[in-house]
Write a structure and sequence with these properties.
alpha+beta; 7-stranded antiparallel sheet; 7-stranded mixed sheet
Length: 811
């Protein structure tokens, strides 16, 4: 575009033609799941499909009660999951709309305000402080024009724009002749010719990267799918084995079908999907109190398994605001001269307007009782030499004849007399610590010569205090933290050392990545995943979004983050507090433990039922438990205690344990051994009264039924911990469990004695004496399990888990 065209801008007719040809200036959003698809997504796990299959077979065979009960559990599980995910989506929508809604452009030689979506290539943007840049553009006029590109490049310092082009191939953070879509204008004025709109912008390029990343299931989803497949095969094998045995014996086909349904119901823990969903939902509610919004339920548990957290620096580990960190020279005098050379303003409501560096200087001056407006009233300005990219300094000529100057040390020191070598050494020390160095000098008269150096200011974007503590917690938890930033390597390294990301005696290689592009971040995450790590990525800028989406868990900042980043994330920190991530890690680890012990508890009961039914089948005896008995045990007297176990309080020691390897199964050999041990303890105890009372089949079944139920009820407290007894864990630390156990016991006694329920379940004839016997038998398995814990401890057994250093976790 010629100088004349840049001065006049496009005509309205030409702008309309280009809008029609190129389309609107907006990013194409990826398809969002409808509410219907979110609801249907709750039914995709193998466990749910298995339950629906069992319900279908039961209904086909006329067992309407069984079928309705199973379907009710499945639907309830889906509703809970749908409501929790919908809450997260609604919270995210409230954090949107950070892109420019309108833009000032030259049209027909005049400044016009148009919707940002109507900006076209060739438009001349008219920029001033407080604007958001509507599209990518080349600067043609700049007067102290500075922008913040932290959300795009990760560079925390404000960028001064100029007309002179950057060298070919310069990284995005150094292309000072360009402005970019959605970047805020911090100060100054300027004009820029639009070169790209919508998906053709740098922001659009990142949006395209997002489309190329593929989301994958979390470890919990994979493990539950694996468990579901295992249970399918268990059901098929059990049914097939008994079916062959009964066919050989000549058992009627209808009886065989009914017995097969009994085995299927006994093998499948119907309450597991609801337990998993509720455990995750309770974790989501706990995290919401910490201002962590969850968009994807399984991501809560996945974060607990994270071995690496790859984090952005600006606004995540740091405050995102410049402050004066160091002053060399007489403090009050340095700040007095520096404040007099600022054009920024601090408002009474606590907000600030102007260049972030000047805002930091004024805040430091206010802290020692100096106010720029007061200084200017006492000694007004007679003239000013504004800052520009060539001189790299600003000077103010005052009414008392003094000249105050602030600027880059390399251009200011040659104008000063006295102490230049000492100042150079101090400046080098500041720079090595990642500080931005400004010099402050004063002289006499309007000429910038023979100046006296007053001192130096070292400015930086400081670490968040809470983030420093959170990183220490991450190290204790065996989680490796990696910093990825667009900042200069020296700045990144200095922040890393201050936050102890680079531990003394260890190489910083692979811990701090500086000057990274969105493609670099995506590559780093993929490399970490290829090495077998479970990766969580945090960030707030648009440049972080592809990496967030590629990671196992993406964590976006709610206050400083942009919409595209929040859309790509699984979790959003509403208060931008990095410490909340560690709270979420703790919650995630607790959730996995709770789900695992609930599953072991449920399967222990199912194995007992299978053994009981299988042994009687092998002995050609009547069924000790009818299909409805099994469904009652699985859905009521098993599932309710398991639900209480699923929301067991999370203990502090989970942050002293190793991150769980992503490939570790939900049910390993130790867990299957505990399942088998539970089943082997319960089944014989239920078989004894059944055999003793077999002459009265209804009473015999009632006793077997009640013994299994009471064994399961009393087993729940023992299942809270593998190493510690119920009383050592704390009998009252999970009051829900106590209420559930009392209620379930009374409920079981009621259904056996109440005539309507007894007739429905086919039970009865149990006297108070036999009820006490069933209760006593029910106490035996739990008592033996608790006694075994004490014996193992006396024999010197100690828990496997314990503290782990970051270095060993990384290996």
């Amino acid at each position: 575009m010629s100088t004349a065209e840049a001065a006049l801008g496009l005509t309205s007719a030409e702008a309309a033609r280009r809008l029609a040809a190129d389309g609107p200036n907006e990013l194409i959003r990826g398809k969002r799941r409808s509410r219907l698809m979110v609801f249907l997504g709750q039914f995709k796990s193998p466990m749910i499909l298995l339950l629906l299959g069992a319900a279908g077979v039961a209904g086909f065979l006329g067992d309407v009660t069984d079928a309705v009960a199973i379907v009710a559990v499945v639907v309830l599980n889906a509703v809970v999951g749908f409501l929790e995910e919908s809450k997260g989506e609604e919270a995210i929508r409230a954090l949107r709309d950070l892109t420019a809604p309108r833009a000032s452009v030259l049209r027909d030689g005049r400044v016009a305000v148009v919707p940002a979506r109507e900006v076209v290539v060739g438009d001349v943007l008219v920029l001033s402080g407080g604007d958001l840049v509507a599209a990518d553009a080349t600067v043609v006029e700049a007067h102290r024009l500075t922008t913040s590109e932290a959300t795009l490049t990760g560079e925390s310092a404000p960028i001064e724009k100029r007309v002179e082009p950057a060298p070919p191939g310069a990284p995005l953070a150094e292309q000072v002749h360009r402005v970019f879509m959605a970047s805020p204008v911090l100060d100054g004025t300027g004009r820029a010719v639009v070169t790209a709109i919508g998906m053709g912008t740098e922001l659009g390029r990142i949006a395209n990267l997002l489309e190329s990343t593929v989301e994958e299931d979390t470890p919990l989803q994979k493990q539950l799918a694996r468990v579901g497949r295992s249970l399918v095969w268990l059901c098929l094998l059990a049914v097939a084995a008994v079916a062959v045995l009964d066919l050989v014996r000549g058992k009627p086909l209808l009886d065989l079908f009914i017995f097969s349904i009994s085995l299927a119901v006994a093998a499948v823990p119907e309450g597991l999907p609801a337990i998993v969903t509720i455990a995750l939902a309770v974790g989501v509610q706990r995290m919401a109190r910490r201002r962590v919004l969850v968009r994807n339920l399984p991501a809560v548990e996945a974060l607990g398994s994270a071995t690496v957290i790859a984090t952005d620096k600006t606004g995540t580990l740091t405050t995102g605001q410049m402050v004066v960190r160091e002053i060399w020279g007489e403090k009050a005098e340095v700040l007095r001269v520096a404040a007099a050379c600022c054009d920024a303003e601090l408002k009474e409501d606590g907000t600030a307007v102007g260049d972030p560096t000047e805002v930091a200087i004024l805040e430091a001056a206010r802290a020692v009782g100096l106010d720029r407006r007061t200084l200017e009233r006492e000694n007004p300005r007679l003239g000013e030499n504004p800052f520009d990219s060539t001189r790299k300094r600003m000077s103010v000529h005052r009414a008392d004849g003094a000249l105050f100057v602030k600027g880059a040390i390399d251009t200011l020191l040659p104008l000063c007399v006295g102490r230049p070598d000492e100042a150079s050494q101090v400046a080098a020390t500041f720079s090595d610590r990642g500080l931005r160095v400004l010099g402050v000098a004063k002289g006499v008269g309007p000429e910038e010569r023979d100046l006296t150096l007053v001192g130096l200011l070292g400015l930086a974007d400081p670490p968040r205090p809470s983030a420093v503590l959170a990183l220490a917690d991450a190290r204790q938890a065996g989680i490796h933290v990696v910093m990825m930033t667009g900042d200069h390597p020296r700045t990144a390294e200095a922040i890393a050392r201050e936050m102890k990301l680079v531990v003394t005696g260890e190489s910083s290689e692979g811990r701090v990545y500086a000057r990274v592009t969105p493609e670099d971040k995506l590559r780093i995450v993929k490399e970490l995943k290829a090495k077998g790590h479970l990766v969580a990525v945090t960030g707030d800028g648009t440049n972080d979004a592809p990496a967030l989406k590629e990671a196992h868990v993406g964590i976006a900042m709610g206050q400083t983050g942009v919409e595209v980043t929040r859309e790509a994330a699984d979790l959003v920190l509403a208060d931008d507090d990095f410490a909340s991530i560690i709270a979420a890690v703790k919650e995630g680890r607790g959730i996995f433990k709770n789900i695992r012990k609930s599953l072991v508890y449920l399967l222990g009961g199912n194995v007992a039922e299978l053994l009981l039914v299988g042994v009687t089948a092998a002995l050609a005896l009547p069924l000790p438990l009818l299909p409805l008995h099994l469904l009652w045990i699985n859905l009521v007297t098993d599932s309710l205690p398991a639900l209480a176990l699923g929301v067991d309080p999370v203990t502090e020691d989970v942050l002293k344990e190793r991150p769980r390897p992503p490939q570790e199964p939900m049910l390993g050999r130790r867990q299957w051994w505990r399942v088998a041990r539970m089943g082997a303890l319960i089944a014989p105890l239920a078989l004894v009264p059944f055999l003793l009372l077999l002459d009265d089949l209804t009473t015999a079944r009632s006793m077997a039924f009640s013994t299994v139920v009471f064994s399961r009820v009393f087993m729940a407290p023992a299942a809270r911990s593998v190493e510690h007894t119920f009383f050592e864990v704390g009998a009252f630390t999970n009051p829900r469990l106590l209420w559930v156990l009392g209620g379930t016991t009374l409920l079981q006694l009621g259904v056996v004695w109440a005539p309507p329920s007894a007739r429905l379940l086919g039970v009865g004839g149990v006297t108070w004496w036999w009820a006490l016997v069933a209760l006593g038998l029910g106490l035996v398995p739990a008592s033996l399990m608790e006694l075994a814990k004490l014996v193992r401890r006396k024999g010197g057994h100690t828990p496997r888990s314990g503290p782990l250093s970051t270095a060993s976790a990384w290996r």
